[in-house]
Amino acid sequence: MQLDLSADQVLIRDAVRDLCAREFGPQASSWDREAVVPRQAVARLAEQGFLGMAIPEDWGGVGYDSRTLLIVLEEIARVSAALAIMIAVHNSVGALPVFRFGTDEQRRRFLPRLVSRELAAFSLSEPGAGSDAGAIEATATRTEQHYVLRGSKNWVTNGEQAGVYLIFARTDKAVGSGGLTAFILERGTPGLVVGKAEDKMGLRGSDTVALSLEEVKVPLDQRLGAEGEGFKIAMSMLDAGRIGVAAQALGVMGAAFEESVRYAQQRRAFGQPIARQQAVQFKLAEMERRIQASRLLIWRAAWLKDTGQPYTREASMAKLYASEAATWVTHQAVQVHGGYGYVKEFAVERYYRDARVMEIYEGTSEIQRLVIARSLLKDGVKV
Amino acid sequence: MNPDILTASAGPSFDLTEDQQAVREMVREFSESEIRPIAAKIDETHEFPLETTKKMAELGLLGMFVSEEYGGAGMDYLSYVIAIEELSRVCASHGVIASVNNSLVCYPIMTYGNEEQKRRYLVPLARGEWIGAYCLTEPNAGSNAANQQTTAVADGDDYVLNGTKLFVTNAGPSDILVVYAATDRALGPKGISAFIVEAATPGVNKGKKEMKLGIHASDTREIAFVNARVPKRNLLGEHNKGYGVALATLGGGRIGIAAQAVGIAQASLEAAVKYAGERRAFDRPIGEFDAIREMLANAAIEVDTARLLTYQAAWLRDQGRPHIKEASLAKWHASESGTRCANWAIQVHGGYGYLTEFSVERYWRDARICEIYEGTTEIQKMVIAAQVLKEHALEA
């Protein structure tokens, strides 16, 4: 057992924290209010190598392990959960699968762009296929030189501005999830129609779109992995994606907590700071409890991943607990702020809205419980 | 190897040392073979388990973190926590018997005792030849422990103790007591001193055994002190510095109680998962219903978060770092996790969960005390909030 960050991790965390506080913090509210994608912030993060966190240095990335990557995501989420999800999706489920499952030729073609300037998007969900990924209907029909993709995709984070899309479609209609195949698509490919950004409750600074696949011709060499391997590729990314969301949740609740502690000491009622009231103190204590428990679950899952041990159950636990903790903590942060928590001048109402989606995307809470319970029943209780 | 391993792994890691794993294996085997067969029976009879307590002593479980020089096992705090967890997984009464002797009796003597006190008292306590008990709580001093009514008045070579202590764990079999008393009542918490008292001292009167909701096999009594003469050489730590001894002791004790709760939560989860896989309803194992799965998944998260927070506190303590907040977080969280997991375990078992034949109702009764003793949940929240406000204090 060892719970200290490494010296490198401390340096990286402090650098990201400083960058976020100085450059992004002052703007995060306006990204939310105006639903503007923070391209400039992405470019700044790209300059520092944060688009290549999951890619080894040999391929132009910075080669962080999972724990370090999550520490970065947490820090970004402290100022903007929207920016954090863009970076998380790009690194964990956008660029990484290209490295992990791509041929050397695909790596050479796509990774240099992805580690330096272009965002990647991951497109699995459909209007009729969310939690049940086996129900995907988009098809990929093979011709001599191409696959022809047809169908509709939903909830594509980074979808408006991505340079590269990972798209999952069915090459075999007969065999459920075993008939899925992954493809790497370039932005601007004829027939890849990007819908307009969804108008969301939270994460308003991140672009979420629907994609329409209208007879998209995809060259054979842009298939990622083998035919029928798509579900495996998608699933192998999900666990890492889930701890990424957990880290995002951790960042948001950390920010909500700190602002609540500060406000509770400044705001006076009945002749003293409200921080002297037990009712308020207990909220702060409970925030601290949920934050620490979340952090330990996240670090444990990441440590398992980094040391090559199975971590599916633990990733689901981290994602489920941290997302629900974030909703709870941000809710209470609004409560501590009273009426001021309900107005946009204070950031806690944004945190509250942003946190809510974390119980939904990358596997709803219900799916996480299913994953955990199945694992318990199949493999038994650990320790 | 995992292809995602990109750099030499560093930073937070959660593996246990070989010694820590060996402690878990040893205590689990002991608990399964020696305690499991009697756990339900001593719950029913309220009998203090003298035999297995003696065996715990032989295994070094009653003085785990005391150095070998003073008769202990010389283990780190995390090993101790693992041992309490494993004992409590089978029988929470055994967990608290060991926890009190280690955390509340050996610890303060080891830390504040002089050489003579350590030779005379710590060695037999750590070896488990003598059983220790801790006397702080009084009828009017529970959460507000500083409100001590028991007095210790200097008289010649002795202090004379008068007063009544409540809820003393291990009271019946105890040989040695660590007793707190007011040496200067006008000074409040700054007028309290700690004493090592031999239970056989005239004027030390153990009351009758309390009948409790749970942890039936742990022996809880009132102890009255009526002109009990304690030699001055048995003053533990400095005169009027006893409250500090009590607080420092409870800081570690809380981690022990957290570990006890983790063990109960673990046992509850194991029972629930096993039963959900076996019991059939509507033509399938009930574990196939989301309603049951939700309880199992929630319980698994409770167990893991409770364990992680508890190990975190123990790890900090082993590093010699501040851990007041983390000990309280662990104690609060784990104790509630224990209650919740035991409650779910009963629910998954349905009517059978309400029968003593299945152990989950015992887990439920045993878990409940963890939210109360060694600082109620409310006290833990006060401690945590005070630390949080200190850490985040606004600059003047």
TrEMBL record, chain A:
Residues 228-377 form the Acyl-CoA dehydrogenase/oxidase C-terminal domain. Transmembrane segments: none annotated. Residues 7-118 form the Acyl-CoA dehydrogenase/oxidase N-terminal domain. The keyword Flavoprotein applies. The keyword Flavoprotein applies. One of its GO terms (molecular function) is acyl-CoA dehydrogenase activity. InterPro entries: Acyl-CoA_DH_CS, Acyl-CoA_Oxase/DH_mid-dom, Acyl-CoA_Oxase/DH_mid-dom_sf, AcylCo_DH-like_C, AcylCo_DH/oxidase_C, AcylCoA_DH/ox_N, AcylCoA_DH/ox_N_sf, AcylCoA_DH/oxidase_NM_dom_sf. Belongs to the acyl-CoA dehydrogenase family. This is Acyl-CoA dehydrogenase.
From TrEMBL, chain B:
Signal peptide: none annotated. Its cofactor is FAD. SUPFAM superfamilies: Acyl-CoA dehydrogenase C-terminal domain-like, Acyl-CoA dehydrogenase NM domain-like. Pfam families: Acyl-CoA_dh_1, Acyl-CoA_dh_M, Acyl-CoA_dh_N. InterPro entries: Acyl-CoA_DH_CS (IPR006089), Acyl-CoA_Oxase/DH_mid-dom (IPR006091), Acyl-CoA_Oxase/DH_mid-dom_sf (IPR046373), AcylCo_DH-like_C (IPR036250), AcylCo_DH/oxidase_C (IPR009075), AcylCoA_DH/ox_N (IPR013786), AcylCoA_DH/ox_N_sf (IPR037069), AcylCoA_DH/oxidase_NM_dom_sf (IPR009100). Keywords: FAD, Flavoprotein, Oxidoreductase. One of its GO terms (molecular function) is acyl-CoA dehydrogenase activity. Residues 240-388 form the Acyl-CoA dehydrogenase/oxidase C-terminal domain. PROSITE patterns: ACYL_COA_DH_2 (PS00073). Residues 17-129 form the Acyl-CoA dehydrogenase/oxidase N-terminal domain. Belongs to the acyl-CoA dehydrogenase family. This is Acyl-CoA dehydrogenase. It comes from Eiseniibacteriota bacterium.
